[in-house]
Amino acid sequence: MMTATAAAGEGAHSPSPAAVSLGLSVAVVSSLVNGSTFVLQKKGIVRAKRRGTSYLTDIVWWSGTIAMALGQIGNFLAYTAVPTVLVTPLGALGVPFGSILASYLLKEKLNILGKLGCLLSCAGSVVLIIHSPKSESVTTQAELEEKLTNPVFVGYLCIVLLMLLLLIFWIAPAHGPTNIMVYISICSLLGSFTVPSTKGIGLAAQDIFHNNPSSQRALYLCLVLLAVLGCSIIIQFRYINKALECFDSSVFGAIYYVVFTTLVLLASAILFREWSNVGLVDFLGMACGFTTVSIGIVLIQVFKEFNFNLGEMNKPNMKTD
């Protein structure tokens, strides 16, 4: 038992408190920036449609696109500092921020239940931070290569690829404009490539500039992961804009967060095994935090059409004879 514990301790690396604090700060800021991207892009698409021009000519759309790029860069930096199972759920903070922004820019409704949902999303994110993994399970290029060639992870990627091909070439052309889950599924499944690739690039980059035999292998691995990341982001970008042309930005952002987070955590659990360092109490805490966030998002979106406010609650019930 002592040997196994020691081996686990050697394989896991605890980031310094400063690195964790910096990673958390970057993750929070990136989630807020990402929360504004869908709203700004949707605003640009609406403005372009009114003028009868392409949204590619609208400055508001481009501001949302630039914000998306900045948010992804921030996520990249955060993934290199703290575990994936912490950074990804923190994207929840972008959902209430995006809903509040949409209520002003797009005149989308946000009633008292929506505001309560914003509060729950923020509270759930704090719970996730408190119970997040305190160590990394993959810290070197050699460990990363071993994980990438694991038959379980390779089999998972093959299943994801088959599902993406089916969605992109058969289902999306026929049902994409009428079913929001089609575009969300495509973008979320691509998260199985983008997030692990981002994390892997950060690990491989550590060995590129070292003068040793492994630096060449690290360079090749980094280039492959960059190519995968680039292709995934381009495809995601395309289908996000397709979804924003057809659906409400807040609804898309909320459902996208839940599905994307679930699939990314699944991919990270298979590849990086970060959950192996989480105790029972922390696991239950993270599960409760994620559930709280999801309930908050449901309150923001499902009841957004209800005309409900605190004033109506204070009115006495009027009995009629």
TrEMBL record:
Transmembrane helix listed as a keyword: yes
GO biological process: magnesium ion transport
Keywords: Membrane, Transmembrane, Transmembrane helix
Residue intervals passing through the bilayer: 20-40, 60-79, 85-106, 113-133, 153-173, 218-239, 251-271, 283-303
GO-annotated molecular function: magnesium ion transmembrane transporter activity
PANTHER family: MAGNESIUM TRANSPORTER NIPA1 (PTHR12570:SF17), PTHR12570
Family indicated by similarity: Belongs to the NIPA family.
Record-given protein name: NIPA magnesium transporter 1
Source organism: Monodelphis domestica (Gray short-tailed opossum)
Name of encoding gene: NIPA1
